[in-house]
Amino acid sequence: MSTQTVPIHVVHRLLKQAQRRGVDITPLLRAAGIPGDIAYRPKTRVTVEQMAKVTQDLWKLTDDELFGIGPPIPLGTLKFVTLSIIHAPDLRTVVIRTCGASRVLTGVPRIKARFGESTTRVELDVSRLDDPEHLGTELLVALVHRWTSWLIGRRIALRCVQLPYPVPPYAADYHAMYGRMPVFDGPDGTVALEFDSALLSAPVVRDENDLADYLSDQPGVWYARRDYGSTTADRVRKILERGLRGTWPAAEEIADRLSVSVQHLRRLLREEKTSVSGIKEEILRDAAIDSLVRGEESVDDLAVRLGFSEASAFRRAFRRWTGSPPGAYRADEH
Question: Could you tell me the keywords of this UniProt record (predicted)?
């Protein structure tokens, strides 16, 4: 099973929201196992489980599924909305029911859709959100996109993501979140997603049993990428992850499995702002962080498992990835 990590700026922006409401954030970091001496280093990353823990604790403190950035959304609202949608026959009905739910639920940003012949546009009105860090907006976009993709069992390739604020310093992370770089400085208070209207007939492939599992992973699904092999990077990552259990496949082997030439594979990955070596480093980085946070193996054993010839080489790579030594990620050493 693959591991994933979340950039520290997501934690920072969530905790700034808490600080504005007088919440002491130090216990939140400690409870999530995020050492204070790495919490404010720009290259730090945390596991999805740590990010979920911070979010869950804020839910309890605010009794609000969006942490007080707008009119309160009581805990359990998301479950209510999803139960009203899970029996939809297809994506078009999912979109229609989602728009309808947003009109009757207090605190939920209004959602509306425009069904075009070739493109469908879904708009979220975030004008009422007190969201200077833009995190609530980003999470809503990710949640709508990932929820609808999960329902039909495939990632919905977005033709456009439009956000109503200037390009932030962490914009490079958006491609991984949405599968493309957003358009910034859109109309005030309006977030928009566009996708191919041909997908509207895609059937819903989930049921209430699946939904129970999905909801049990809240809020992890807000932060974890859920790929369905819909991009070249997804497929390459799936092949490369086997290297964590044995030999790392070379670019030629990956290209052969995908029935393309190595040159074409590299070109496709460049278009997605990544590369084979970049994806491999992300996999190694995330696996290393996950192990260190769990504290179940020594640094030397971890280096060997990840394929490094020497522990010193692993330590150098880890510092390059995160800006910190491996020991800084062990909560029990602080």
Answer: DNA-binding, Transcription, Transcription regulation
* Domain residue limits, the chain: 5-68, 77-208, 232-333
In DSSP notation, 250-317 reads: PHHHHHHHTTS-HHHHHHHHHHTT--HHHHHHHHHHHHHHHHHHHT-S-HHHHHHHTT-SSHHHHHHH
DSSP state of 166: P
Tens of pLDDT, residue by residue over 70-84, are: 778 888 888 888 998
Q: CB-side exposure of 149: number of CA atoms within 13 Å?
A: 24
pTM of the model: 0.83
Give buried/exposed letters for 67-88 (b at 16+ CB in 10 A, else e): bbbbebbeeebbeebbeebbeb
Whole-number Cα distances in Å, 275 to 4, 101, 157, 182: 18, 41, 20, 20
State phi, psi for 99 to the nearest 5 degrees.
-60, -45
Query: Does 232-333 carry CATH code 3.80.10.10?
Result: no
DSSP H or E run through 6: strand 5-7
Q: What would the pLDDT profile of 288-333 be if each residue is shown by its tens digit?
A: 999 999 998 999 999 999 999 999 999 999 999 999 999 999 865 5
